[in-house]
Amino acid sequence: NAGVTQTPKFQVLKTGQSMTLQCAQDMNHEYMSWYRQDPGMGLRLIHYSVGAGITDQGEVPNGYNVSRSTTEDFPLRLLSAAPSQTSVYFCASSYYNPGQGSPEAFFGQGTRLTVV
Amino acid sequence: QQPVQSPQAVILREGEDAVINCSSSKALYSVHWYRQKHGEAPVFLMILLKGGEQKGHDKISASFNEKKQQSSLYLTASQLSYSGTYFCGRQQQTGANNLFFGTGTRLTVIP
């Protein structure tokens, strides 16, 4: 059971380049989300999805696009990379269990992105 | 929208206790606690769903005061393995995945 898999683990981009961070989960979770982590800022929510075909914005969505065509995959696209997007990006998945309320989020190992 | 955590950092000797606080200006439907070791992904510790509820995980427990919109994490008889950054997460009512995390508390346990 792989859990949440993120690729690549490391990436260096030049300003203005675009790229897609991949996230896949094999737990059949309905919910998936993307966070960025910067020193002193904790984890900030970028975008999230409650199921295939449904996405919504989090705290810091500008400069990022997402789509959710399947339950398993939730890619994050940087349209035109900027140095301010240098960060560690985490993808997470979770499921809704009405009997137990809010369940835990499972995180991928992260992608360390540097924009020069 | 991020919850505020205090202290920002704390250093303990093995066996000492610590309290990490989390407060929110937005209503708290539930509070999640996670621990992240350096260079690793955050790992789930516990969820508190009801006001005043307390939960425990080994020697780590937490309380949740819904009226005050606050939660506290209690670490007793700390071990070296407790070192890491602790995050509280505020959940909105619509689902579990849109967690808003606090800025974190870095805990260092020394021998």
Q: How much of the sequence of chain B is in beta strands?
A: over 45%
Largest sheet of chain B: 6 strands, mixed
The arrangement of helices and strands of chain B along the chain is: EEEEEEEEEEE
What's the count of strands of chain A? 11
| Structural class based on helices, strands and sheet pairing of chain B | mainly beta
Class by alpha and beta content of chain A: mainly beta
A few lines on this structure:
The complex is a heterodimer of chains A (116) and B (111). Chain A is mainly β.
Mind explaining what this structure looks like?
The complex is a heterodimer of chains A (116) and B (111). Chain A has 116 residues and is mostly beta strands. Chain A has no helices and 11 strands. In chain A, the strands form 2 sheets. In chain A, strands 2, 4, 5, 6, 9, 10 and 11 form a 7-stranded mixed sheet that branches. The mean pLDDT of chain A is 92. Chain B is mostly beta strands and 111 residues long. Chain B contains no helices and 11 strands. Chain B has strands at residues 4-6, 9-13, 18-23, 30-36, 43-48, 54-57, 60-65, 70-75, 84-91, 99-101, 105-110. In chain B, the strands form 2 sheets. In chain B, strands 2, 4, 5, 9, 10 and 11 form a 6-stranded mixed sheet that branches. In chain B, strand 4 (30-36) and strand 5 form a beta hairpin. Chains A and B meet through strand 4, strand 5, strand 9 and strand 10 of A and strand 4, strand 5, strand 9 and strand 10 of B.
